[in-house]
Amino acid sequence: MSARTKLDLDATAERCTALGLLHTADALPELVEEASRENLSPLGFFHRVLEREIERKTERRVATSLKLSGLPTGKTLEGFDWTFQPRADRTKLERLATCAFVRARENVLFLGPPGVGKSHLAVSLGVKAVKNGFSVTHFVLDDLMHALRADAAIPPARLKAKRYLNSALLIVDEVSFRPLDRHEANLFFRLISARYEKGSVVLTANKHVRDWPEIFAGDEILTTAILDRLLHHVHLVHIDGRSYRLRELDGLLQPPAAATSPPPQRGGEITKS
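The structure assignment produced for this chain is given below.
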């Protein structure tokens, strides 16, 4: 590279930085070399520059949004073990992964015993939503109730800035692991009512909805009001089967195979012919 070419590249990189094209500024020598090697036209080179810049901006946006969402890492639809859980409706999950339900402000309810992959699938839908440009907030129920109790005295109009209200998708995990007291149940109802037809909710629960009154302070009327809003526009996903967390335990609990000893050697004997 000649000194003149380097000066030209440095000057162009400074202009890219001034325009906020930070990736282009860093990768300019590489981009110019690619353009020369592939004999790109000026328009083709410009298209390549814009394409790379958009890719990097998207990567940064997704990384930031995933961090803000509170989603656990490492749980994706691609990483779900469908062979271990063959009863999971893969076709339905892949359809939900298009995020059409988020655009339509519909809900998803995962039901099934503990350990069958409900949380993994709920989180994987959250990851897909982030990648599709939607805001997502993830809570385990206990953490959500802590936030709702802290905000209980705030007027509804001032709650609009809270992520559990203004995110396009709210994921609440482990809904039925413990019963809520009456105050908590009322706060949960207020949340569901505020999000009704304004934003999507994904819930995971290990109890059928007919047993939900025992979760919400034994109040059947309040439970009915919650379910009325949750189930109005809902996709139900039932998962039955063995627990992922117990599959390794199954192997540990198996008795060890009996060791087989080789037959004793009768050393020192002389065979007579």
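Interim note for the steering committee: Confidence is low (pLDDT under 50) at residues 267-273. Residues 90-245 form a domain with the Rossmann fold fold (CATH 3.40.50.300).
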